[in-house]
Amino acid sequence: MSKNIAIAIVMILLGVSGGFAYLRMSQPSETEDATVTGQCAKHQIAEAQCPWCNKALVKEMGPCPEHGVPEALCSRCNAALIPGFKAEADWCAGHKVPESQCVPCGNGSGECK
Q1: Residues spanned by the domain of 57
Q2: Which residues contact 39 (CB under 8 A, 6 or more apart)?
Q3: Is the distance from CB of 60 to CB of 53 less than 8 angstroms?
Q4: β partners of residue 70
Q5: Does residue 54 belong to any structural domain of this protein?
Q6: Is 28 left (phi over 0), alpha (psi -120 to 50) or beta?
Q7: Tally of structural domains, the chain
Q8: Hey, CA dihedral for 78, 83, 87, 91, is it positive or negative?
């Protein structure tokens, strides 16, 4: 009976260690080069859509007709931009818009009102 228990424990340990090895290998490395994944590492958005790294996008996309800001920088139309604004320290948590676009805060000129 003790032999069966020992075998069961060994099998459980092998299964658990195999599971951890699988999880470790299936997750991308945090140090993975951003150009390999096509992601802008700083702004956490697709490299081709990053308006902070590709300034030409702002001019190419023109203004957002609904919100009066550049379409390339409109976080209300494209929520994927929010991590980029936060990385640039340009985010009003109180109003959930970029600080530079926050009308109640004076477009970044002061505290929330």
Answers
A1: 38-101
A2: 45, 46, 47
A3: no
A4: 63
A5: yes
A6: beta
A7: 1
A8: positive
* Within a domain: 62: yes
Tell me: the pLDDT tens digits for 14-27? 888 877 777 777 65
20-54 pLDDT, tens digit per residue, is 777 777 655 554 554 556 888 888 888 888 999 99
Residue 53 lies in a domain: yes
Q: What does pTM read for this prediction?
A: 0.61
- Determine contact, residues 61/71, Cβ cutoff 8 Å: yes
What DSSP string runs through 10-63?
Answer: HHHHHHHHHHHHHHHHHSPPTTS-HHHHTEETTTTEEGGG-TTT-THHHHHH-B
Structure tokens belonging to residue 71: 């379409």
| The residue to which tokens 């993975």 are assigned | 32
17 lies in a domain?
Answer: no
Q: How many whole angstroms separate alpha carbon 113 and alpha carbon 69?
A: 21
The distance between the two most distant Cα atoms of the chain, rounded to a whole number of Å, is 76
Placement of tokens 């970044």 in the chain: 108
